[in-house]
Amino acid sequence: MPTDHGEPCGDRHLSFCLNGGFCYLIPSVSRPYCRCSDSFTGARCQEIFLPSKKTQPKTSTLTYVLVLAVVIGVLFMAVLYFICRIRRKLKMKQNAQDFDFHGINCEREAP
């Protein structure tokens, strides 16, 4: 598994890369680097790479939760708006009935 990044390591770094990783040296840098096989990762290919299918569902689940929260928030605000509007109308109607009950005309006459 050669790489275009540098030259293969010599005998000095023969066992630097683990789990079948390919060791190479970059001429401008003095330390070895590894190119790991598909099943391993890490600086020396020391960690098993387990592709996870849960990454995508977590993202889509988070998206669904956020969209649902926004929709619920908008519905909540709409309900509050209509409750306040109904209460204001009822209060105005109650005030108009109270004024009529006492014989007071609350309508303004045009000059």
Please state roughly what percent of the residues sit in beta strands, choosing from under 5%, 5-15%, 15-25%, 25-35%, 35-45% or over 45%. 5-15%
Q: If strands are numbered along the chain, what order do they take across the biggest sheet?
A: 1-2-3
Determine the number of helices (DSSP H or I, runs of at least 4 residues). Answer: 1
Overall SS class? alpha+beta
Q: Spans with pLDDT under 50 lasting ≥5 residues?
A: none
Secondary structure tally: strands: 5
Separation of the first and last Cα atoms: 97 Å
Average pLDDT, all residues: 81
The largest sheet is:
3 strands, antiparallel
What's the SSE pattern?
A: EEEEEH
Radius of gyration: 37 Å
> Globular, elongated, flat, extended or rod-shaped: what is the shape?
rod-shaped
Q: How much helical structure, as a percent, in the residues?
A: 40-55%
Description:
- By secondary structure, the protein is α+β, with helices and mostly antiparallel strands.
- Helices cover 42% and strands 13% of the residues.
- It has one helix spanning 55-101, and strands at 7-8, 22-25, 32-35, 40-41, 47-48.
- The protein has a three-stranded antiparallel beta sheet with strand order 1-2-3, with no helix packed on it.
- A hairpin with a 6-residue loop joins strand 2 and strand 3.
- The longest helix is centred in the last third of the chain and has 47 residues, at 55-101.
- The model has no long low-confidence stretch (mean pLDDT 81).
- One of its GO terms (cellular component) is plasma membrane.
- InterPro entries: EGF.
- Low affinity ligand for the ERBB4 tyrosine kinase receptor. Concomitantly recruits ERBB1 and ERBB2 coreceptors, resulting in ligand-stimulated tyrosine phosphorylation and activation of the ERBB receptors. Does not bind to the ERBB1, ERBB2 and ERBB3 receptors.
- Disulfide bonds join 17-34, 36-45.
